[in-house]
Amino acid sequence: MKVAIQGELGSFSHEAAERMVPGCAAVPCPGSAEVFDRLQRGSAAGAVIPIENTLAGTVAEHADLLLMRDVFIQAEFLQRIVHNVIALPGVKFNDVRRVLSHPVALDQCRDFFRAHPQIEKVPFYDTAGSVKHVIGNKLRDAAGVAGRKAVQEYGGKILQAGIEDDKRNFTRFFLIRKVEVPGRHKKGNAAGREWRGLIRPHANKTSIAFKVKNVPGALFKSLSVFALREISLSKIESRPMRGRPWEYVFYVDFLRGDDEAARNALRHLEEVADFVKVLGIYPAA
């Protein structure tokens, strides 16, 4: 099974893809939009994307793409993120003058850079890509910050391991599949004709996005559809809508699968919201 990932081979997304879809062939993509493009074109059967990190929060671009594209979340996975300083074999730590990595990874290692002010942090497009660049160009004054899998892919050497600020650093990944029948922003989406066949056994968690009307009490009424049925929300977050200034979408995760209470809650939500999109129904990690 071909699985599209954002970033290079050896990235945390690559590692998550192999854990979520054993035996898969990872298809590296330089940008997030290309991941979704490959999925919708059919050149990849699935995609694995990071959606949230315990230190950095939600991956905004991926949240937006889940709303805009016709895809469905089939599974989630929580991966421990360990950042390592990786350089050419033979390079010593005192030789390193700059460290390259994805901006989010660099931001998770603030204590390391405070302790080593002589080292410049350089934003790069990908964690594993930084190691690939350092090794491929034989840079002796630079290193990348990435996971151990990057060493397996590109043959570098770990100079310092576990430089992240917080050892409880986890990223939540989604496995997403293409929805064959577009159902984006439609009334009646909760019926799920276009995605019901993608739900895995033992699914007990649902992710949705909805927009409320700009009237007093609209959010209260929207959340009451879950409270009335004693459905627990594990996350709620608002995001601005692209191309519609000062309008917002709420992203909600709740702890129920495709059962009668959840379906009734979604139908009730559609009565009080401008639109509801079911992003996925899947087994909780």
What's a concise summary of this model?
The protein contains nine helices and 15 strands. It has 285 residues and is α/β, with parallel strands linked by helices.
Search tags:
285 residues, alpha/beta, D-Maltodextrin-Binding Protein, domain 2, Alpha-Beta Plaits, 6-stranded mixed sheet, 9 helices, 28% helix
Tally of extended strands? 15
In DSSP terms (H or I, runs of 4 or more residues), the helix count works out at 9
Categorize the overall geometry: elongated
Strand content: 25-35%
Termini Cα gap:
22 Å
Order of helices and strands: EHEHEEHEEEHHEHEHEEEHEEHE
CATH architecture of one domain: 2-Layer Sandwich
What average pLDDT do the residues reach?
A: 93
User: Could you state the oligomeric state of the chains shown?
Assistant: single chain
Give the proportion of residues in helices.
Answer: 25-40%
Computed Rg: 21 Å
Parts with pLDDT < 50 across at least 5 consecutive residues: 183-187
Largest sheet: 6 strands, mixed
Note down, in words, how this protein is organized.
A hairpin with a 7-residue loop joins strand 13 (233-240) and strand 14 (248-254). Strands 1, 2, 3, 4, 5 and 11 form a 6-stranded mixed β-sheet that branches. Helices cover 28% and strands 33% of the residues. It has 285 residues and is an alpha/beta fold. It is elongated, with a radius of gyration of 21 Å. Helix 6 runs parallel beside helix 7. It has helices at 12-20, 32-41, 60-68, 103-107, 110-115, 127-136, 148-154, 218-227, 260-272, and strands spanning 2-6, 25-29, 46-53, 57-58, 71-80, 84-87, 98-101, 120-123, 142-146, 157-160, 170-178, 205-212, 233-240, 248-254, 273-282. Among the domains are: 84-160, Periplasmic binding protein-like II (D-Maltodextrin-Binding Protein, domain 2); 187-285, ACT domain (Alpha-Beta Plaits, 2-Layer Sandwich), CATH 3.30.70.260. 42% of the residues are buried. It has 9 helices and 15 strands.
